[in-house]
Amino acid sequence: MEERKDEIPKRERWLRQLFNGSKSPNPYFYAALKEINRQGDEITPGSVFDEADSPTNICFVKCKELGFPGAAFLRQEPKKIIFLCEEYFDSRLRDGEYTNMTEIVTHEMIHWIDVNRGMDFSNKESLFCSEIRAALLSGQCQEFYNGTNTLLKTMLNHPIKCAKDRAIDSMSISGSKMCCPSDKLLQGCVQDIYPWTERPTSQQKAKEILVKQFQLTDQNGCIKHGHILTQDS
Ligand SMILES: [Zn+2]
Q: How much is the pTM?
C-alpha cells in the first residue's frame, strides 16, 4: 500500500505558532502565559496520543466522541492538561476566527492559573469564580463600545452579565449546575482580577495596562513593548 505523508493540520500549526511566539499575541493570552511561566509551568503543544509523563500539556481531541459539547476543557489528572475540541476549532479556524480561538485557549489558561493558586473546582463557588475570571480575563467578555455615549454604553457593554451567563453555561456543560449565584459572590469573583492590576475591559485597555505593568516591573528588558502593541493578525 502506498504510504501517504500526512500534512500537519492547520489547527496544529496555529497552536504551535501561538505558543512559540511567532504570532504577535493578544494581550490577554500574553498576560496569562507570562503568569503560568511565573508559576513555574510551561505549556507545550502535543498530541492526545502522547504518554502521560511527556511534557506536552495542550492538545486537540475529538470532543464529539467523548460526548463533550463544549469547545475546550482542563483536566488535572494525571497532570494538568488543556484539551481543545478538534471539530470546534477546525471549522472556526477555517473561517479565520483566530482571535476567538485564542480567547478560548486563554480562558483555559486562566483556569490553569487558578488551579495553581489552589482554587478547588469541586467547590461550586470556586468553580463559578474561576469561570467568571476566565470569561473576563480572556477577552471573551469585553466592552466593545469604547466611546462616551452613555446610551450606547448601557446598550452595548455588558461584560459582567456576559461573564455570568457564560459561567452558568460552562458549569452546566461540565455537569456542575449552578443556579442563581448571589450578587455578593458575583462581585467578589469580578473583583478577583489576578494577575492583572486592573480589569482589562477591551483589547486596547489590556495593552495599555500591560505596558504600564512592564514599565514598572520588567527590569531585565526581555519584553519588547512594541511586540505586545502589535495588532493580532
Ligand atoms: Zn471555563
A: 0.88
